[in-house]
Amino acid sequence: MVNLTINGTQVAVEKDATIYDAAKACGIKIPILCHDKKLHPFGGCRMCLVEVEQMKGRLIPACTTPVTEGMIVQTTTDEIVKARKLVLELLLLKHPIDCPVCDAAGDCDLQNLTFEYKVNTNRFVDEKFNHEIDYDNPLIERDMNRCIHCGKCARICDEIVSYGAYTFINRGIEAKMGTEFDGPLNCEFCGSCVSVCPVGALNSRPFKFKARWWALQKTKSVCSYCGTGCQLTLGTKDGKVLTTVYDENQGFHNGQLCTRGRFGYQFVNSAKRLTTPLVKKNGKLQEASWEEALEVVTSRLSAGKSDPASVAALATPRLTNEELFLFEKLFRGTIGTDNIDHSAGYAHAALTKGAKASFGVAASPSEIADIQKSNLLLVVKSDAYETHPVIGFEMNLGVKRKGIDLRIVSDKKGKLTRLPGAKTTVHTPGSEVALFNALCKSIIDQGLAAEGVAGLAELKAAVADATAEKAGVTAEEIAALAKDYAAAEKALIILPIGLGYPGHDAALANAAANLAILTGKIGKEGCGLLIMGEKNNSQGAADLGIYPKSTGLSASAIIEGCGNGNIKTLFVAGENPVVSYPNRQKVEKALENVEFMVVADLFLTETAQLADVVLPACSFAEKSGTFTSLGRRVQMVRKAVPAVGLAKSDFEILNTLSAAIGGARYNNQAEIFTEIASTVPAYQGLTQGKLGDEGVVLPVTVSAKLVPAVAKAVAPVAGKLALLTGSALYHSGTMSRFGEGPMYVCPTAYAELSMADAASLKIAEGDMVTVTSATGSVQVAAKVGKRVPQGTVFAPYHFGEGSVNSITDGAAVTYVTVAKK
Ligand code: SF4
Ligand code: SF4
Ligand code: SF4
Ligand code: FES
User: Fold this and answer.
1) Ligand 3 pocket, 630 CB below 6 A?
2) What does the pLDDT look like over 280-324, one tens digit per residue?
3) 118, 145, 225, 655: least surrounded by Cβ within 10 Å?
4) How far, in Å, CA of 62 to CA of 185, rounded?
5) Is residue 86 in a domain?
6) Is 0.85 topped by the overall pTM?
7) How many C-beta neighbours within 10 Å does residue 129 have?
């Protein structure tokens, strides 16, 4: 520790602290403009000038000056105040004083400091900037006339987002924060730069002129897209969500969000929201009252009690824990059916079956915090950035700031593979399990297994015939990766799972877990396996048992059951199987065939259109409850706006139905949380009050065990391309299609080809192509790039038109032909 004195107060801080950090630690405020705790110090604005006695009265920037033992610092002498006023005068010289029409007014550091330092005149005169304003995209407005050259946007985009969209261009008075060739912004549109801009130079366009900042009501909640569980603050007014408000102190991610979190909230206000129940009459869905709709559903579910095997229920892991608990209680408890599931079955099997078998618990043994504590990250699939972008930020920070070794095993390249020092092993599609088995065999063969690992002999026998060739990589690559992984003091395996990844199943979780267990990299900080559930509450759905537990049908078997008439009543809460489950034609036929289907959803989705009763449900912003993130953090979701139209939360819907058919009735969702805490072991002792703003990470007791995993053979088909499905960077499931941000950046389905395949098929970027498999064909636009290796084609699964599930059937890899339309 280093001891120093600031304004007469003694303070002791870590030796790598700056004067600014030390002052903050003892509650002394030093004004800043270019400094941000998340970014490397810049020292550009000189607003934080202080005086250090040992430096003979020279004024120095507090944000870049490290503390030294015995330092005596003054932060508010007359001379310092004079210097800061001068800084403000110089900044205001070029800055347009257009606060009345600036969206940052009230939340502008320059405005606040000008007020605080009473800079009401300017001794200097100069012309204002006359830069053209960039209105090119509908998400971020760039008005460089207001820019104060703090450089924060460029630093965050480079250091955290790793995109590098900005740089200073020109010199001296002509200097400007510019983009590539000074053109319009064309990037990931995560909005991180907007969040840190201290003035109104970068603005959120969806929020423009919607409300003054100070008139917003601010509600802390949790993002409802992916499993990362980013905390966010919803800015609302007149019952509408108008923006997400940046709070640098929120969450492990310091308030940073991705495109979905920052600009995807508009689905809450979408004009396409369902506002009233619909009941099918004469073959057509027609508006109905809640009484009428619930009466139909109640009588159907009541009848189902006498034949529970004919009833099935599918829930989206976007519901709150309380809603999922009630869902389970209603269908498994009151009706007595075990036919309940979520996400097609395979999408969560890595947790419910894989982790359960390998670790004795249906959860990751690791947390998000382990990423930065690790020495080596082994990521399965380059898409981890696309599926969980803020985890991508964490990995990026670990790699750049802590020198974490980043290894990726993937069937294609992506943003992660471009991070500095990242080494990617590109394997053949569908061979992930074979690759991990080969790594385990190599560890054993090289004598790198930890001592005394139980079950080693069985695993050795099980992987005896595993070869690098089966995964399409060289023996040298496998041997080197195995050696590096074993040598790392701490190594963490990261495995994204979700509807787009049929191959990321229980066997893959076992195979990856085996590698960690075999090398003793389990149960330690910075080690283990982080299974990244696709949806905001994928972990909660696993914790609350939303999957068949004994003889019940899994999601795909439920669809079969609807098709063959065994399932007569299907309740769907928020799932959209028509677009997101494999084999669209089969799913549509089955859902058309089922005697009675009720869908509770926010939108009239492709699935809801086939229902007999549609119930309008609330979004996350219209209800309270909890979500559990992929790192097992349980966090509060708080109601920020009233329900749209006549929509009700899934809690209200399920609670009413439960009471009507003789099940439990709760007074509020918090009451259910109390019951969860007394019946679900991991949640024991929790109360919603204890969660606070930060949430609570659930404890996990791991009982690690080697579980041999069988690698399914994937035989390439001559003359065909291997179709890989997954997530587009800006989307999550099918809900993001109703968010302005994600839809601007990625509005339609596409098929991404390698340059070599595109050339031989005479396909150019943007051409419409027909992708044909054994089960059907779709027409989508082509993308051509370097990410996809020759012989493969990638398509995201989120879109209803040109939906990729029209040509897949749930196999890890589907073989297709691609031809120009
Ligand atoms: S929106 Fe994100 S990717 Fe685009 S410039 Fe800003 S920080 Fe960079
Ligand atoms: S645009 Fe904003 S964040 Fe970027 S340099 Fe200018 S003032 Fe700073
Ligand atoms: S989508 Fe995921 S990564 Fe993006 S803000 Fe939401 S929780 Fe965070
Ligand atoms: S905040 Fe220290 S120089 Fe800008």
Assistant:
1) no
2) 999 999 999 999 999 999 999 999 999 999 999 999 999 999 999
3) 118
4) 33
5) no
6) yes
7) 16
Give the Cα separation of 683 and 543 in Å (integer): 9
Mutate to test the pocket of ligand 3, among 190, 225, 252 (most ligand atoms within 8 A of CB): 225
Whole-number Å distance between alpha carbons of 166 and 428: 36
Look at the chain and count its residues: 821
Instruction: Mark whether 372 and 517 lie in a shared domain.
Output: yes
**CATH number, domain at 557?**
3.40.50.740
For residue 690, is it within any domain? no
Residue 502 contacts residue 582 (beta carbons within 8 Å):
yes
Beta-ladder partners of 240: 237
Residue 151 C-alpha to ligand 1 middle, in angstroms? 13
What is the Cα–Cα distance from 615 to 651, expressed in whole angstroms? Answer: 12
For 329-375, write each residue's pLDDT tens digit.
999 999 999 999 999 888 899 999 999 999 999 999 999 999 999 99
- Tell me the C-alpha to C-alpha distance, in Å, between residue 368 and each of 157, 372, 527, 631: 22, 8, 11, 5
709 part of a folded domain: no
Split into its structural domains, the chain has a count of 5
How high is the pLDDT of residue 346? Answer: 86
Q: Which domain holds residue 774?
A: 721-820
Q: Which atom of ligand 3 is nearest to the CA of 259?
A: 4
Q: What is the pLDDT of residue 189?
A: 94
Residue 99 contacts by C-beta under 8 Å, 6 or more apart in sequence?
105, 108, 111
Q: Which DSSP letter does residue 134 get?
A: B
Residue 242 and residue 316 share a domain:
no
On whether both 377 and 503 belong to a single domain, the answer is yes
What's the pLDDT tens digit per position in 122-132? 999 888 889 99
Distance 754 CA to ligand 1 centre (A): 26
